Amino acid sequence: MSFSPLIRQLIDALRGLPGVGPKTAQRMALNLLERDRDVARHLAQVLESAMDGVGYCQRCRTLSETDICNICSDPRRDDNVICILQSPADVWAVEQAGGFRGRYFVLKGHLSPIDGRGPDEIGIPALLDSLTGREVAEVILATNPTVEGEATAHYIANLLKPRGIKVSRIAHGVPLGGELEFIDGGTLAHALAGRTPIL
Amino acid sequence: MSFSPLIRQLIDALRGLPGVGPKTAQRMALNLLERDRDVARHLAQVLESAMDGVGYCQRCRTLSETDICNICSDPRRDDNVICILQSPADVWAVEQAGGFRGRYFVLKGHLSPIDGRGPDEIGIPALLDSLTGREVAEVILATNPTVEGEATAHYIANLLKPRGIKVSRIAHGVPLGGELEFIDGGTLAHALAGRTPIL
Ligand SMILES: [Zn+2]
Ligand SMILES: [Zn+2]
């Protein structure tokens, strides 16, 4: 099998995309070269500009191309409720589920001492900073319903309780062991509505 | 749901890839932004250089970044046998199957009068040109085993017979109605070996 170097490189680069195996990458490369060169050039441009232009919201830490994301800058959202999540994908999932009108704070994953990911690594100090001097009626801990997500929720709950903030955990309507971003909107909306106090 | 414009554009551009639906595109976009920015930038560069640098072999018309592809320029290949295929993907498939050591000629698909794709559109004149003044013992017609592929093979056979060239069709070991590029290497090698004279 003798692909020319550029075609080989293209196939290899496409395999870098999540979920793309060798056969799929080969098929994508060929389709782009044979039929969709404009699509490929457009994708190249958009990849560049997205990687350059998309950073993180200074307030909630979700992916954003503006310093303050469009959720944080929306005056119609409720400042009194903050939903804490593990990743920007979870913000998208909760927004897609609908029903939540408060603000967000996005951690960098969950606590994982084995991997050297402690409170500093996942952004707990930034979370505490963001809550300081702010009137907050309730913090909803919506980390994943996994062992690590639960541990992270409890860790945060223990930090916030002494501050007199009402802390709740999303209801265990979410299937145990699952990951938030893959849960259907109905279940997720239900779990948010049925949240229970924690500690 | 409120993706920022650049993220929206990235998701839409990724959907341009063959076989990528909205959920997959969203997941890819997020993964690239959150974890794989270098992968994304590299992919962008490679897409650009492949679209600019990969053209078609002047001799066999397969995808190539050189004027003459590495199969056509390989002196160890047998000039006496030419395998005619519908697409560069089919060249890759036959090469991967192994066992064929001749040359190729790649058509632009199959005849399709309904779509206005006649002999000129699929490159029949270029095929005839390439055969003119050339010593060829045999032409193997390896168009797809579909109705259109069969019709295209017969059309070409009728043109070549008067020139006194031995024309064969790959054996119908290939499943009828299938597309060559998806057939496993063993079947394909077998079908090539068991080719039968046509007309
Ligand atoms: Zn924000
Ligand atoms: Zn060639």
From TrEMBL, chains A, B:
A zinc finger (C4-type) spans 57-72. It comes from the Bacteria. Keywords: DNA damage, DNA recombination, DNA repair, Metal-binding, Zinc, Zinc-finger. InterPro entries: DNA_Rcmb_RecR (IPR000093), Rcmb_RecR (IPR023627), Rcmb_RecR_Znf (IPR015967), TOPRIM_dom (IPR006171), TOPRIM_RecR (IPR034137). Gene3D superfamilies: 3.40.1360.10, 6.10.250.240, RecR Domain 1. Residues 80-175 form the Toprim domain. PROSITE patterns: RECR, TOPRIM. SMART domains: TOPRIM (SM00493). GO terms for biological process: DNA recombination; DNA repair. GO terms for molecular function: DNA binding; zinc ion binding. May play a role in DNA repair. It seems to be involved in an RecBC-independent recombinational process of DNA repair. It may act with RecF and RecO. NCBIfam families: recR. Belongs to the RecR family. This is Recombination protein RecR. The lineage of its organism: Bacteria, Pseudomonadati, Pseudomonadota, Gammaproteobacteria, Pseudomonadales. The gene is recR.
